[in-house]
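User: Show me a protein chain along with its predicted structure.
Assistant: Here is one chain, sequence first, then structure tokens.
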Amino acid sequence: MRPNRRPIARSPRNRTLTGQGISPGLAVGKAWVYEGTIHRKPRSRAIDRSEIQRQRTRIERAVEQVLNDLEQSADQVEAELNRDLAAVFRAHQEILNSPGLLDELRSGLASELVDAEEIVQRVFWRWERRFLDDPGGRTVRYADDVADLSRRLLRALAGIHAHPLEEVPEGSVVVASRLLPSDTVHLSRRSVVAVLAAQAGPGSHASLMTSERGIPAVARLPDLLTEVPAGETVLVDGFAGTVVVRPDEATESQFRQRIAARRESDAVMRERCRDVAEMPDGTRVEVTANVGTAQDVLLAAENGADGIGLFRLESLLMTSNELPSEPQLLALLRSAIEPFTGRPVSLRLLDAGGDKPVPWLDLPDEGNPFLGRRGLRLLLHHPELLEYQLRTFLRLSREHEVRILVPMVTLAEEVATVRALLERAGRAVGIAELPPLGAMIETPAAALCADEIAAHADFLNLGTNDLTQYTMAADRENPTASRYFQDDHRAVFRLVKTVCEQAGDTPVSICGELAGRPAALPRLLELGIRSLSVAPPLVPRVKEAVRNRKT
């Protein structure tokens, strides 16, 4: 790979590009263009049958190398960020180990009589097209995964071990058509000050990795590679989703002043992050954190979260080949949430199905899994799995202020069933005072019938990511539909308003990316939301936005 070999064509001063901010922040740096492909495409070479075994051996060795690289990538991301993001690379291992894929590579050598490089390109291109051409758009998200694996294998076959992003000079703004998972793992806050991508959505790997690392990023810039020459100075605003190319001295100076002011305000917010968040009229707003691992919990504590508003159980239950025993799960949870002893912790029941396979559970192959058996539907189909979690949560409630969240509620009777099972589990473990039971409102049906659901719940929690996905009919990880994934759209806010109005005296909290946007905060507070759950790094800024809310 040879990025940054394209000659610099001088662009007009202060040329402004507008895209979509996918990771907040401000940065100034030099454009470092990343092509993201093998610089010289391997030349197709015909082979005779005597060479088939040698080419097959080359592929098998490349597959073994890539599997080892994926394991290292997963371990690195889990150590530096969190286990949820590391799961991307574990999923890639499963794809590469797929018997169908490996059989197609082996049989292709014999039937098409081309070398290893060419058959890898052909087979992976066919797999990528299958995902991209899905009429329902259900599998588009997997196209990037297949493209990434293809590129990894080609690099292994070519004997390339170092990744170009490991050599990015300090102070660089990475400019790319798209960033695949194997790229994002090499992004370093020390050398990469910002990322610009032509293709990426708010739920893409680029968005998740840059956000977790605190790297500003702007995407949906279709002419990016022709508009931003290598080596050019660029100003990146990840809040507004804008990029200024080749700024003049005055413009750059003003932008640097904004960065300095932002750093000062961030320092002030960090000093006050453990204080309660009160609106100017004295009304208190609870600001909690969304977490999935023990590392996330520590980060939430450091940033002054009032509690854990959403603890995702998936990282504890879905990363091994067997289900932990109840004592094991209890020990894992007890250790993870220890920093929040004395503060509320909302534990969400396992939210599996959809795009989240469970290694130890034989799930049906569904044509459209997001409209199938996922979340609570899956748990009700496996009541023993549901009661196992409820008993563990109840035992933990002896030591911690536990709340229980029910994911993906559609019907009121579903919550009534969970409450009955919770009462039965309480009798089984000898606990009469049950923890509060909350229902996740993530579908339009649940939002429009919030009054019926509230009759069986102690509180409601609006999950705006899925609520937006189902309301706008847009998968947030599908770049072809990213313009439709608007969680601040009036249709979404009308559903939020409906829930708040129908809830009556039942408290309503909100999690999802919308809760972490200061621009959306006044509307949420006006609707009566008094509890917000956001990513741990956003807690100080959201608290400050509450304090500065204009009455």
